[in-house]
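hey
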């Protein structure tokens, strides 16, 4: 399929997804049945010998269910805008196809830097991370991860590209280790209190880890095949377009399903 046609369909799919999830949220609007606020620590007491410090949370940011819903819809809208830019070849400027012919797409990494960082923010809330600074740092790490993709495509030296790939995979591991560790800690803590988290939360993080790694695999294949006779950068651009929609649809649709469920439904 030609890139222009593929981007046209991607524009429509993301736009329709934004409308669909927004309609679902407003039709079945309700607060999530788990705490979505972010907190910071403060010292509440210190022992007489100054060795033991007791910390307690205080609320820093109240992240409402409506805010999470708006972020999910915005992810689709922003992505749709960028695909419209690609479909019209840079709104008639010729900027997009010129990039593809040169073997890179700087606009893609700008879009990923925005939308995937928004996704990490939502995933942090879903995973039960309560510390404001941890969520902030995960978002920064993801933005750095996206910048590595930019430098990987812009670079000329293959060794530098390989280093960027290795660093990228390390960042993915660091981000998702933090997300998964916090999620399973919260799961155990809630279980110890003889309470239940909504069952749908169990199926959010691992699929998203798969998609994040898939982008890295495409980047690795791109680097590995550069210089070969049949190399065509447009092939990898198509892979990115497919992965972009599948990953966002996976998270967006599933979270819409979860957030709009009845609060009493724990299955």
């Amino acid at each position: 399929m030609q890139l222009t046609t593929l981007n046209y369909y991607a524009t429509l799919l993301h736009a329709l997804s934004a409308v669909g999830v927004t309609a679902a949220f407003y039709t079945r609007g309700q607060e999530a049945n788990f705490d979505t606020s972010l907190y910071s620590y403060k010292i509440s007491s210190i022992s007489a010998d100054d060795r033991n410090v007791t910390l307690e949370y205080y609320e820093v940011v109240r992240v409402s269910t409506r805010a999470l819903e708006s972020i999910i819809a915005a992810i689709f809208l922003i992505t749709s805008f960028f695909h419209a830019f690609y479909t019209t070849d840079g709104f008639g400027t010729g900027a997009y196809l010129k990039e593809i012919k040169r073997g890179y797409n700087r606009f893609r990494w700008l879009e990923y830097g925005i939308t995937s960082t928004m996704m990490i923010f939502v995933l942090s809330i879903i995973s039960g991370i309560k510390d404001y600074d941890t969520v902030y740092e995960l978002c920064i790490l993801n933005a750095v991860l996206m910048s590595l993709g930019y430098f990987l495509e812009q670079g000329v030296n293959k060794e530098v590209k390989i280093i960027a790939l290795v660093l990228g995979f390390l960042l993915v591991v660091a981000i998702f280790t933090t997300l998964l560790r916090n999620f399973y800690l919260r799961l155990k803590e809630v279980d110890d209190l003889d309470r239940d988290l909504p069952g749908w939360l169990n199926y959010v993080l691992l699929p998203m880890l798969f998609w994040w790694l898939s982008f890295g695999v495409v980047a690795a294949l791109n680097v590995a095949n550069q210089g070969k006779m049949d190399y065509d950068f447009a092939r990898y651009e198509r892979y990115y377009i497919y992965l972009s929609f599948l990953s966002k649809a996976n998270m967006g649709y599933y979270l819409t399903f979860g957030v709009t469920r009845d609060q009493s439904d724990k299955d």
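The CA atoms of residues 172 and 212 lie 7 Å apart. Helices lie at 3-27, 65-87, 95-101, 106-127, 132-154, 158-192, 205-225, 233-259.
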